Amino acid sequence: MGVNVFAVPVFFICFRECLETVVIVSVLLAFLKQTIGPDRDQVVYKKLVRQVWLGVGLGLALCVVIGAGLIGAFYGFGRNHFAGTDDIWSGAFGLLATIIISIVGAALLRVGKLQDKWRVKLAQALEKNDTKASGSATTRLKLWTQRYAMFLLPFVTVLREGLEAVVFIGGVGLSLPATAFPLAVICGLAAGAAVGYLIYRGGNTAKLQIFLIISTCFLYLVAAGLFSKAVWSLENNAWSKIVGGDASEVGSGPGSYDIRQSVWHVNCCNPQLNGGGGWGIFNALFGWQNSATYGSVISYNLYWLAVILVFSSMRFKEAKGHWPLMKAKVQETSESVSASRGLVSGPVEETKVEKKADRDEAPTVSRLRRGTMFWPYPALASIASLFGTPNGHEHLGGPSAMDDVPSNDGKSDEHGIVSIAAHGDIILQVEHETKQASHVVRFRVSSPALKQHSRYFERLLQAGRFGEATRVEEQHKELRQRYQNMTEVPDVELPVIVVQDLGRISTVKSIAGLVTDFLYILHGKDMQTFPPVANLANLAVVTDRFDALEVVKSYVDRKKIIRALDGKTTPKVDNALSEEKVRQRLLVAIMLDYSPWMEKYSARLVIKGWTGREVDVSEALWWDLPQRVEDEIAFRRDCLLETVQSLQSYFLQLYTSRDRQCRLGYDSSPQCDSFQLGEMVRFFIKMGMLHMRGAVFDASDEPAIPYAGDINTLHKLSRKGTKKSTSPQSSMAHPQNNSAPATRRPVSQNNPFRSSHDAPPAYSPASNAAPTLLPPNISVTPATTQGADDPYAFLNTFDTVFLIDDSGSMAGSRWRETALALETITPICTAHDSDGIDIYFLNHGDRDFHHNVTSSGTVREIFETIRPGGGTPTGQRLNQIIKPYLRKCEREGEACKPMNIICITDGEPSDDVESPLIAAAKKLDKYDAPAWQLGVQFFQVGRDEEAKRHLRQLDDELAEIAGDDDLRDIVDTVPFMGQEGTQLTGDGILKVVLGAVNRRLDRKKSKELHR
């Protein structure tokens, strides 16, 4: 009874053909939604979707009519004209279906690559003039097929699949009663439509290219089965002629198949017998038979081999530019190509002019260059242009297909605008200022895409919240009245949104590529090129600036960019990475939440240390890691160093206690403990892990600076014992001996006297009264310079700034000498600066009470709170003082008060001092400032001859170093003590406070300054 109502073979055939159809239709709908979409151009999107459904409906209606007519004719005339040739029809249609599905499958894989091209072509086709315009019938037909391509493709697909279903149903179902067809057909179509809906939903949510790959694989699986089944049908037709009928319709056992050609056979599941049970599903969908012949097995494998070869050849041609085993074609010149197309016969310049004229006359679609398609069969032109040719290039009839779409190279058009989205509705103007230059780049973008993925743009463009959103909405209303959709609007008429500052990125020649990559990701496109680590770090900074980390993180994860970077980095290269490259990777890990890099490279900084530098907001963000990671790394390194230090502290405290540690029986003695203590002290000193310091009076100039090297080296040293393979000078060298400044965090560790800000120990009590810095045998000699009553009156003109070297090399006698120097000159300077002097230190931070100091006693109190320790970044500190002052001079002009900087130092800088001084002198020359606008006096303490020569070089040879003989002289130098410990005279003190701004005092000889 069931067979008379529901024909299982008919159901499966309808289901399979419907499934093939819905795969292609789902791809079209998903393509339209992801390419044009209702949120981009709703009018065009709805028009194209209506074309798709109209083509599907008309094709389905024709198939039903043809199928019903065939069945009605069979049962009306009572004769099966199909019975003798059903295998031939099935085989022929199977081969035809295999060819069509294979071509369609190859075309589907190109949808993702040519998505932008087709978007523009669809827009062009829809805005063409009426097809009744003048022109040949071929031209009018071509224009019509282009305009209604989304109707023709589903119509042809549904019609072909429907006719194929009619043929296959005629082969297996005409032996059944007519009542078995309707329900089976309806259920098959319904099941296929349901599966198609699920495929469509998945295609909308998944990435288009992934969806296309899955769909193509399914279609090829069906095509391979159809090809094998077609060969089997042709072989079965020959066997049926031998036995005088269709043997497969009588059963599944012996005699129902050709035993001569059989590879294997299963005595069940014959699809000819009402579906063959559960196996009928595989037969209907994938063409798998219960009987295999040599021809069907070989053809199945040959099909897959052919697919592999074809796709390998296509991939080869895409990469190399020519087919395998063929020579590459020589590129034609512009003239020969133009001549072959019949464009012009003149020179190349005329060709360019004519092409430009053609573009100006063409309809406007985002000001993109147009291309013209020439196909021998206009009716198929639109369909083929949508899917592209198999080799990935246009035919020779017209320009390259890429002329129709913006290329992903970040290049701007004639208006200086980079097109990110052809349907974009705003122009995004990005401005970024660096030390070297100011960058301005403009992009055509889609505001819905920006708002969807960036919280920054979501708030900026929220209606009624900011003026930009209101202005954009008003301009959009005006544009909608003049244009049908945003694709038609020229770039120059779109509203402009200006955003400033991309964040703390590194110095780049152009920001166009960086911002283009960022905007491509926001618009669902791929980046222009595979980014190196530095670019990825800059991209992370820009992404954080515009609050779009989620979408960029998802893109980087999906593309496996970080894993690819790891794969390209060999262990040898990874171990040799510079600190900057390590920090770049760490910043990427922080921003994009990539834990393997976070764990690996933060541990490397903790173990190996880093180059200390002051935080500069103009530098890239990776030099000052966000989210308190910088402080956390410094803290963890401190904990490790403290753990290593606790090892020696434990044993030293143990053996300096009164408890005897030796456990040698009768040989135990205090001398044993003393011997062990001495050996430990010698071991730790030899390894550079311990320094002996006096507690009563520390006369050493060597500061106690935390170990700044590789902790692994420290661990190896502690294991080597007294071996001399690694000396303390090379492996345990202090930062003081390096050209780079010391580690900047934490600052308290640079103090040679203590590790915290607690009071000094009891054996060096502080006096209740403020100490007298000048000893009794030193006095200040009055000035002998003839002239005004007050020789220091010129000081009233200046803002006096003291820069005091508090580095580790200043500890001990030099620090006491600095105190004497301050006691000598600060009373004079505070008395002649109405708003007070300013005091800066090289390592200790600025405090409010360090500025506008009007009393020498306050200077003494400030000095007593400081303990020397750290590096000597003199050039960096001078730059931090001079640079803001020069900006002030540029703003105020002649009203800017001159500045007199007195730098008290031992003359041993660890960085470049010349560059900021030369830059300042050139800036002052540029501003045409007075000769005394800025002066820098180096007041040297200590008697280091090498340091003295360096300071004299700054004083006398700065113009020669700069290569500019006309460079103004803004530097002077004076030693605090003479060659034999002689004191400053009055003229010497006058030179200290005014020598840098008074050329007459600058020329005084050193022997005149001391007695």
TrEMBL record:
Signal peptide extent: none
Residue intervals of the VWFA domain: 799-993
Amino acid composition bias (Basic and acidic residues), ranges on this chain: 349-362
Bilayer topology: Multi-pass membrane protein
Localization per Swiss-Prot or TrEMBL: Membrane
Primary subcellular site in the record, as a coarse category: membrane
SMART domains: VWA
Entries under InterPro entries matching the protein: FTR1/Fip1/EfeU (IPR004923), VWF_A (IPR002035), vWFA_dom_sf (IPR036465)
Transmembrane segments: 6-32, 52-76, 88-109, 148-174, 180-199, 211-232
One of the Pfam families matching this protein, by short name: VWA
Family: Belongs to the oxidase-dependent Fe transporter (OFeT) (TC 9.A.10.1) family.
The name this protein goes by in its record: VWFA domain-containing protein
Organism: Salinomyces thailandicus
